[in-house]
Specification:
The chain has 2 domains: 81 residues, Orthogonal Bundle (Arc Repressor Mutant, subunit A), CATH 1.10.10; 76 residues. The chain is mostly helical.
Length: 187
């Protein structure tokens, strides 16, 4: 689903042909986007009325398809950005894709996304802290893998760090945004 968010976000910036769109998503994420992910998504968007596809002539080559986001597509993008279901909130890519689109959301919608991520991290931290306590109460002579304890400590440290970062983001959630949602290129 994060791929859909990124594709729609890129199309909100400007119309693109498939190859250009793929390059822009790959440049933004560092993740290789395969045609078997890109074109089915574009086809789904077209069937939903979220994008239109027009032919652009090219000299000495077959025309290429250019995809343009529609008003329905803007609504779909907004809805996907504003909604972070619990089952997706634990996925870092899903969360970061939405965070990158915070400029398109209201403060309340931003807080909702942040809260969904916070709940998942709090649950994860509580579960892992319980494991850590259980391992510690077994005593120093109990069999166990010290490397596993190091990993557990590091994961807990990362969760605490992200929770702190989310607190800082929440303080900025009410700041006004200036994202222009247009499909026309700026001169």
């Amino acid at each position: 689903m994060w791929v859909d968010v990124l594709l729609l976000s890129q199309l909100a910036a400007r119309p693109s042909h498939g190859y250009e769109l793929r390059r822009r998503v790959e440049a933004a994420t560092g993740i290789k986007l395969h045609n078997n992910s890109l074109y089915p998504a574009l086809r789904r968007f077209g069937e939903a009325g979220a994008v239109t596809r027009t032919l652009e002539p090219q000299e000495g080559r077959p025309p290429r398809h250019v995809y343009t986001l529609t008003d329905v597509g803007r609504e779909l993008l907004h809805d996907q950005l504003a909604d972070l279901p619990e089952d997706l909130a634990g996925d870092e890519a899903e969360f970061l894709a939405r965070l990158a689109g915070f400029g398109r959301l209201t403060p309340a919608e931003r807080r909702g996304v942040l809260d969904a991520r916070r709940r998942v991290l709090a649950d994860r931290r509580a579960r892992l802290a319980g494991l850590s306590e259980a391992a510690g109460s077994a005593g120093p002579d109990a069999p166990g893998d010290p490397w596993a304890a190091l990993v557990l400590d590091e994961v807990l440290r990362r969760i605490r760090e992200e929770q702190s970062w989310l607190d800082r983001l929440a303080l900025r959630a009410d700041e006004p945004t200036t994202v222009a949602d247009t499909t026309e290129e700026k001169p």
